[in-house]
Amino acid sequence: MPFFKNCHQISDDTDPLLSKVVARGKVDIQIDYPIQCNPRFRRSRKTWTGADVVNEVRTIYQKFIYKSHKSEHQYGVWGHDIGDLVVEGFSVRKRAGKPPLITLNIGS
Description:
Elements: E1 21-30, E2 40-49, H1 50-70, E3 86-95, E4 98-107
Parallel strand pairs: 1-4
Antiparallel strand pairs: 1-2, 3-4
């Protein structure tokens, strides 16, 4: 799966799995590593491909890690810079009456 190194945008043609539509409309993305507070971010777009998810996760991590370093780790980010993190995978769980929940498998 793509990784954050050098913070490049990932395109749908990088890997066939990344071009697959995984959700439509609103989604909740849960961040849990290396952030201790496990926040969820609601995002919306017409369709979500795997590449869209990875790119949105990259954007969220960039903001979180930047804010964490500026505010003395207020968000509980520990031991990593964005270049250390790897998207190993993610799952999309449908929920009744709520947007799908995207959970991540982030490694380093």
